[in-house]
Amino acid sequence: MTWTINPSLTKIEFLVKHMMVSSLRGSFSSVQFDLHLDTNAWSSSHVQVSIDPKSVSTNDRTRDDFLRSSQFFAPELYGHIVFSSTRVALTGKTLTLSGNLKIRDQEHRVEFKGSIQGPTSRGRDHAKTLHISLRSEIERSLFGLNFGSTLDAGGVLVGKRVNIHVEVELNEKNEPPQ
Questions:
Q1: Could you give the domains of the chain?
Q2: Which one, 32, 123, 157, 174, has least CB within 10 Å?
Q3: What pTM, to 2 d.p., does this model score?
């Protein structure tokens, strides 16, 4: 079965502590997925995701420009953020996606855990829809994202741990008969 991504219902977001009290939320608008999903044998599946860090948005132009600068993501020097799966497993409705995440030429193993909703049928052709929701947490300094200033009252301006949230809606692509 071939699946296509519904871009309007797919997003990659991150959350990080800001000034030790609030959570800063951001997202990426330019994301490419290369999916080979076998919903009958999940361990045969493979996922690759490529994110253009120039597409980062936190709804603050000054902050976004800083994140695109050489002090943070440095996309002109390091290119895209890339995740490549090494293992896909489904236990009940719990999906585990393990793989390598590369940011700023620093590559480390990460594990996403989450859930699958569906498949459900939609439309006249009864095509199937599947929703995947995944979460992970990374230590940003492992990826060379070392920006950090201390606050006068103690603590740091930007937290060291980053939560990553992925929401993907997949629609069955009906292949013409051969």
A1: 2-173 (2.40.128.110)
A2: 123
A3: 0.87
Render each residue's pLDDT in the chain as its tens digit; 178 residues. 678 899 999 999 999 875 556 788 999 999 999 989 888 899 999 999 999 999 999 999 998 998 899 888 899 999 999 999 999 999 988 999 999 999 999 999 999 999 998 878 876 777 788 899 999 999 888 888 776 665 456 554 566 778 999 999 998 876 655 5
Q: In whole angstroms, what is the distance from residue 109 CA to residue 48 CA? A: 14
* Structure-token pair, residue 178: 């051969």
| Strand boundaries in the chain, DSSP class E | 2-5, 11-18, 22-28, 31-36, 46-51, 56-57, 81-91, 94-103, 106-122, 127-139, 158-173
Do the beta carbons of residue 167 and residue 8 sit within 8 Å? no
Single-letter code of the amino acid located at 166: V
Do residues 159 and 17 touch, judged by C-beta distance below 8 A?
yes
At 75, is the secondary structure helix, strand, or coil? helix
Q: To the nearest 10°, the Cα dihedral for 163, 7, 30, 45? A: 70
